[in-house]
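Table 4 source record.
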Amino acid sequence: MADKFDLETAKRLFASAAEMVARREAEFSKLDAATGDGDHGTAIKAAIAAASVSLQAATDIKNGFVDAGFATMSATAGSTSTLWGAFLMGFGDGVKEGVDALDAPALCAAFESALANVRMHTKAAVGDKTLMDALIPAVEAMKGAADVKSLLRVAADAAKKGAADTVGMRAKFGRAHNLGERSVGHADAGATSAAAILELFADNF
């Protein structure tokens, strides 16, 4: 396989991610129930399914991700679809016009654009016990990666560590914020599902 991230790769990876999230829906919701509304599994399942369905119909990678972002935002009314939709639209915005496949620097630039767009929708940062505890370290870790395969691997490893670190954090956003110290001791569901998706990408690229 050429070391490029192209549209067919994106279609394949998101189809696999949608299947994985559907299998783990109950697990993610149970995790969310410890500190939140208990519906994250349902929300992330709808979001990634919508993204995958949209991508399967795409004919170019840039517009494919932008369209997938819009589809994801329409999937459900909660923050999961909003943030993942923003991520996907930002990713598409970070792809240059006419590009068919992304090498490591181009893929990193797309992820950086994706993260920047998410930051327009949330003030959460590392340490706040949210999705951002996985996404921010992942994007930081991929800078300077020599190839796409290693980029996805270091991103997945950083996201996994970031998600694990949320166990010891006190939540600062959402319903979990109201629990105060009682939010400590549980991993954040959004960070955990994001890390799982990035790990799947790394394992299956």
